[in-house]
Amino acid sequence: xxxxxxxxxxxxxxxxxxxxxxxxxxxxxxxxxxxxxxxxxxxxxxxxxxxxxxxxxxxxxxxxxxxxxxxxxxxxxxxxxxxxxxxxxxxxxxxxxxxxxxxxxxxxxxxxxxxxxxxxxxxxxxx
Length: 127
Fold this sequence. Notes:
The chain has 2 helices and 8 strands; from the N terminus they run αββββαββββ. It has 127 residues and is α+β, with helices and mostly antiparallel strands. The strands form 2 sheets. It has a 6-stranded antiparallel β-sheet, covered by helices on one side. It has a two-stranded antiparallel ribbon with strand order 2-3.
């Protein structure tokens, strides 16, 4: 899909918030995406002796090597606008094989730069 086509989709979307997300899972236009998980690179401990992990270590699947802080109330994406499409596409390409334009009407900011968490994120287009 060309940048101008994506720009038009963003301009025509009837959502308050738009994001670009890479994922290894298959989604189709109109489908609501699964909620994301809060992932940590470093272990967090429940005690001062550093013996009991606060979040479990993930040993298989797409998040291998991370610690799972639990399910978020929405789907993580990079906030997209008609003016930053190329930048956001470049930023997400290493996070998954498939890239999606998603939207929703409720969001909160995530921990990473330009990260938003869209509640009930719907797939606008498969890019």
